[in-house]
Amino acid sequence: MSQQKTVSHIDNLPSTPGKFKPDKSPPYIHRLRVHSAISRLTLWSSLFLIFIICFFFFSPPSSSASPRRALGGDSWGGHNWEKKVSRSAQTRSGLTVLVTGAAGFVGTHVSIALKRRGDGILGLDNFNDYYDPQLKRARRKLLDRAGVFVVEGDINDSELLRKLFDVVAFTHVMHLAAQAGVRYAMQNPGSYVHSNIAGFVSLLEACKSATPQPAIVWASSSSVYGLNSKIPFSEKDRTDQPASLYAATKKAGEEIAHTYNHIYGLSITGLRFFTVYGPWGRPDMAYFFFTKDILKRRAITIYEAPDHGTIARDFTYIDDIVKGCLGALDTAKKSTGSGGKKKRAAQLRIFNLGNTSPVPVSELVSILEKLLKVKAKKKVLPMPRNGDVKFTHANISLAHKEFGYRPTTNLDTGLKKFVSWYQDYYSGSKKRVARAFSNI
Ligand SMILES: O=C(O)[C@H]1O[C@H](OP(=O)(O)OP(=O)(O)OC[C@H]2O[C@@H](n3ccc(=O)[nH]c3=O)[C@H](O)[C@@H]2O)[C@H](O)[C@@H](O)[C@H]1O
Q: Per the UniProt record, which residue ranges are transmembrane (predicted)?
């Protein structure tokens, strides 16, 4: 009993050493006190040790110290990586631009054009295999030579995006990463939602939280006009009848852009590209695979509208598109938000970037036959209902007024340049391949 009392008395002793007054208790009381002090010390040391272990195990590794694995891409992070990122984005007096989809067709041309005039450019691309990734790797070589570093990663990787905005204060984002192709949407609808909707939102989230907020210029598409029959297509025309999921995701992008502009004060410019073609183009596009098939003496399919109607496109040459992109970047006003909050209304624009002269697909094939000096084996079939539209035709007066956009390359001239690049690039001759790389 008395021992129990004594123990409870010992437990009530002050734990602060300075307040402990030595007393004249018997020796067994001292032993008990020492024993208790040792137990407490052991308990606190164990707790401290557990805390340290938990801290090291559960805290995220510092990405500046060790590289991390990107979502669907290379590893990123670390001192050397950050140095490459900063060096690529460095500029004396120009823009500091993050180009998404930099290893894509338009992304490569725009990045090189911006770098050449002195802007600081950082590329981002996930190098997916929608079409030959070898071609994307070859474009990366061009970018490397031009001094543009391309980070391999996905726009859905918000941690990577945050890191990029931490390392570089981008003034602009040229957003070109997307799942392209009108007809492929029937085979892989999820990829359109992943890149063109979820990916776009992920990018806008990063932009709205960045300090400073960048101005954004991004690629919408002529396909948003869908079944619109009023020609030429003007930005004021209706865009609520998309004919493909691709078009629907681009239209959704335009609405999402409105929301981020409205809530967060992001300055956003959408560019509706009209069937862009040229050297280093996309192998999934008709002019590209027609060239390949004609040269291989394989039959090509040409679609026609009901009642043998013509299908036509406002084919637009890549150099004209590049000028349009640069014009849009140069006239983009600053975003107005900060810390994720809007201060005042910000710029929100949409422009057609087309060629203003539609050409029937049959005419495109005739030009290719002349340039390739091979007669095409043609199969004419009714246009399947798989997302295609009968014709496109851009009214470009708005882009002309705002930044002097005026396309100057007709389809004959543009295809001549494409065919010359194609024949060099796929020639198998070292000298000619080198020429394909130098002609950009
Ligand atoms: O402006 C856009 O926003 C879009 O442009 C491009 O789409 P489209 O204009 O449909 O180009 P593309 O496929 O080259 O077909 C060209 C023509 O060939 C016809 N076509 C096609 C295939 C075939 O086998 N036969 C055929 O006649 C076909 O009927 C069509 O008339 C981009 O791919 C797209 O990503 C998007 O950017």
A: 41-59
